[in-house]
TrEMBL record:
Assembly mode: Forms a complex with KhpB.
Keyword Cytoplasm listed: yes
Species classification: Bacteria, Bacillati, Bacillota, Bacilli, Bacillales
Protein name in UniProt: RNA-binding protein KhpA
GO BP terms in the entry: cell wall organization; peptidoglycan biosynthetic process; regulation of cell shape
Cellular localisation: Cytoplasm
Pfam families for the chain: KH_KhpA-B (PF13083)
Organism: Metabacillus arenae
GO MF, any single term: RNA binding
Highest taxon in the source lineage: Bacteria
Family that this chain belongs to: Belongs to the KhpA RNA-binding protein family.
Annotated function: A probable RNA chaperone. Forms a complex with KhpB which binds to cellular RNA and controls its expression. Plays a role in peptidoglycan (PG) homeostasis and cell length regulation.
Length: 76
């Protein structure tokens, strides 16, 4: 799952070498935190959050085979 998120986010940003994904797994959920360069935050979020919503949709769809809830967080 992390590879999928990294691939999507790196394609969107100007500083792909600064993309960092942190995984925090708990009993019934997995939280992925995305950290990007300060100039790239707007590109990952998109206008009115459309890009972030699309990334979340893809990640949720890819994670349907697991019994854990997947959350995606974009840190600024």
């Amino acid at each position: 799952m992390e590879e999928l998120i990294v691939t999507i986010v790196k394609a969107l940003v100007d500083y792909p070498e600064e993309v960092v994904i942190e995984k925090n797994e708990q009993r019934n959920q997995v939280l992925y935190s995305i950290n990007v360069h300060q100039d790239d935050i707007g590109k990952v979020i998109g206008k009115q959050g459309r890009i972030a919503r699309a990334i979340r949709t893809v990640v949720y769809a890819a994670g349907t085979h697991t019994s854990k809830r997947i959350q995606l967080e974009i840190n600024d």
